[in-house]
């Protein structure tokens, strides 16, 4: 693991990671929760209303001879309430209830709408009936309770009548036998040996008849009471279904589950960096500095020293100085002289340009001689920051012209007007710079800049476009990756880190910028459509200049004397007034610039 890395990726727990994903994609979770609530409201409006009404029935034992309890019954009394609850929902009771309700609905269908509950430790039955209207629910509950009590009473009366009939039959049989015994005893003498036996039979029959007569009298005097309604069904005022609150809560919960699932899917599919914390968590790269979104940086911003952005880059400068390894046994002041820091973008765009320019300005504010070398060829005219506009220098000559041998390094090095101790080597105007960044001329150029300046900041091309950043990093003392939020992908950052680490140069970490906004509108930008044409004309003019001769190497130095003064007034030979005059104006006319509202240096 890289020792210079500030942060390392720590495995997050599943709960923290899940909450983090939901927080990062809160809008998606919120949308799906609202969709779930809306769906629940729609379902509630389409759902059929259901009313319920309940009737409480006290179940009483019928007579002293009835024992309806079984071994597995719910209570210890004379009544098995489980059996009674099943009786309420029987077809027989449902048929009687349909007759009382004067309903044409089949009894089995009515029985399906009944629910019977037995409160604990009581002999009550709570009979609840469900219907589409409040009146039907009230009538159905009362009808089933009434039908149950009638059925139970009729069953009890029939049972008592059966018992009475059985007792009468037994009594009649015993009376008939007693009559025969009495007839026999009437004709026998007192001394007849059979007389004691007959008298014993007569006594037994008489006793049995008396016992049965007592039981018969008890049954005849028994009052049959199946039970009574203690609380009759009332008319319900509100339906029990649909339950609006329950449906809305269920819809919100389902939407939340789908939202978290969608957030997880989006998190897996979306590879763009959304926050600085994504780097150590997903690509195992430390964050050196992160510009907050409230700063709102633009493509051509150079932050003021004491603004929010300037303070961030001042801290970044200190981090870089503390992270660059010094040679063992060397003087610290000597070790910090001629340090080369490469700033490479992980993706296309102007992130590396903004970071390199502001880091170079922060180095220059220490009073040390600093050189900004622009080796980043433009990816497009829309997303590219112009260093010459940012720092107030000429676009040409630049690095590509030096490497091509058209200009010397001294003539291509320009002083930044508003930044003391800062020199700039722009990209240059050579049309084709392919292979120049991997040549020996580049090594010689960086070696010369090491001798002339304390710090050299190189703006490298994006690692996603070419291997030039890797070649530049091999010649540097440290490397930094510039990351633009909501544009750079995790795979691009991982690839950039892999490329820079392969050359052995310490990778200090990443500098994270919010998504860069377009440059502010100014007076000179009103003529923006003419800029590409002027650059093309100057490129054509430079390419037609013959290669420099050794004895005339000092002549191009007159071009960089004063950026605001046209070189036409300083040359001894006046060229023809047609094309050279136009080319000279396009290069040397640099309007004055003024600080922007958020503290960044801007052109007016």
Task: Describe the model.
The protein is of the alpha/beta class and 604 residues long. It has helices at residues 14-24, 26-46, 81-88, 91-101, 107-112, 134-187, 195-220, 244-269, 278-283, 308-323, 332-335, 351-364, 387-391, 399-403, 409-412, 440-452, 468-474, 490-502, 531-544, 579-588, and strands at 51-59, 114-117, 124-131, 227-231, 287-290, 339-345, 370-374, 414-415, 422-425, 455-460, 478-484, 507-513, 593-595, 601-603. The strands form three sheets. It has an eight-stranded mixed β-sheet with strand order 5-12-11-6-10-7-9-8, with helices on both faces. A hairpin with a 6-residue loop joins strand 2 (114-117) and strand 3 (124-131). Helix 1 (14-24) packs across helix 2 (26-46) and helix 6 runs antiparallel to helix 7 (195-220). The two termini are 47 Å apart. Residues 1-16, 64-73, 328-335 and 523-604 have low confidence and may be disordered.
């Amino acid at each position: 693991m890289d020792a210079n890395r500030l942060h390392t990726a720590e495995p997050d727990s599943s709960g923290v990671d899940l909450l983090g994903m939901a927080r990062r994609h809160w809008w998606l979770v919120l949308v799906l929760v609202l969709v779930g609530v809306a769906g629940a409201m729609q379902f509630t409006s389409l759902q059929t209303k259901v009313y319920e009404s309940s009737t409480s029935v006290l179940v009483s034992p019928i007579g002293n001879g009835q024992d309806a309890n079984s071994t597995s019954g719910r209570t210890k009394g004379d009544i098995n309430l489980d059996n009674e609850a099943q009786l309420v929902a029987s077809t027989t009771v449902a048929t009687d209830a349909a007759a009382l309700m004067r309903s044409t609905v089949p009894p089995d269908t009515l029985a399906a709408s009944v629910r019977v509950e037995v409160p604990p430790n009581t002999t009550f039955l709570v009979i609840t009936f469900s219907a589409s209207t409040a009146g039907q629910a009230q009538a159905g509950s009362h009808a089933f309770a009434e039908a149950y009590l009638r059925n139970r009473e009729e069953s009890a009366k029939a049972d008592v009548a059966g018992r009475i009939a059985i007792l009468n039959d037994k009594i009649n049989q015993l009376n008939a036998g007693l009559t025969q015994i009495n007839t026999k005893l009437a004709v026998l003498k007192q001394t007849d040996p059979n007389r004691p036996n007959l008298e014993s039979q007569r006594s037994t029959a008489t006793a049995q008849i008396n016992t049965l007569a007592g039981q018969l009298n008890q049954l005849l005097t028994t009052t049959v009471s199946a039970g009574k309604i203690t609380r009759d069904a009332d008319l319900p005022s509100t339906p029990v279904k649909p339950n609006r609150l329950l449906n809305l809560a269920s819809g919100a919960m389902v939407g939340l589950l789908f939202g978290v699932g969608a957030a997880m899917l989006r998190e897996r599919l979306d590879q763009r960096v959304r926050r600085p914390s994504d780097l150590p968590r997903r690509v195992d790269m430390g964050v050196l500095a992160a510009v907050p979104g409230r700063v709102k940086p633009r493509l051509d911003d150079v932050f003021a020293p004491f603004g929010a952005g300037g303070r961030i880059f001042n801290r970044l400068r200190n981090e870089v100085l503390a992270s660059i390894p010094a040679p063992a046994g060397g003087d610290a002041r000597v070790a910090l002289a001629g340090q080369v820091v490469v700033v490479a973008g992980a993706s296309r765009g102007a992130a590396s340009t903004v970071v390199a320019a502001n880091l170079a300005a922060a180095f220059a504010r220490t009073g040390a001689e600093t050189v900004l070398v622009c080796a980043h060829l433009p990816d497009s005219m829309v997303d590219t920051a112009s260093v010459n506009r940012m720092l107030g220098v000429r676009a040409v000559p630049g690095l590509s012209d030096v490497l091509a041998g058209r200009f010397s390094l001294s003539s291509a090095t320009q002083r930044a007007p508003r930044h003391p101790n800062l020199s700039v080597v722009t990209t240059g105007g050579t049309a084709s710079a392919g292979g120049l960044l991997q040549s020996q001329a580049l090594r010689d150029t960086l070696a010369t800049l090491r001798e002339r300046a304390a710090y050299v900041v190189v703006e490298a091309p994006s690692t996603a476009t070419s291997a030039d950043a890797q070649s530049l990093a091999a010649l540097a003392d440290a490397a930094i990756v510039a990351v633009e939020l909501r544009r750079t992908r995790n795979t691009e950052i991982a690839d950039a880190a892999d490329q820079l680490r392969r050359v052995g140069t310490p990778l200090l970490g990443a500098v994270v910028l919010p998504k860069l906004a377009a440059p502010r509108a100014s007076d000179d930008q009103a003529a923006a459509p003419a800029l590409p044409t002027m650059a093309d004309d100057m490129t054509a003019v430079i390419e037609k200049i013959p290669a420099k001769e050794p004895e005339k190497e000092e002549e191009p130095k007159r071009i960089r004397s004063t950026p605001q003064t046209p070189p036409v007034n300083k040359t001894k030979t006046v060229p023809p007034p047609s094309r050279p005059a136009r080319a000279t104006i396009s290069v040397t006319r640099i309007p004055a610039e003024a600080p922007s509202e958020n503290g960044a240096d801007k052109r007016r």
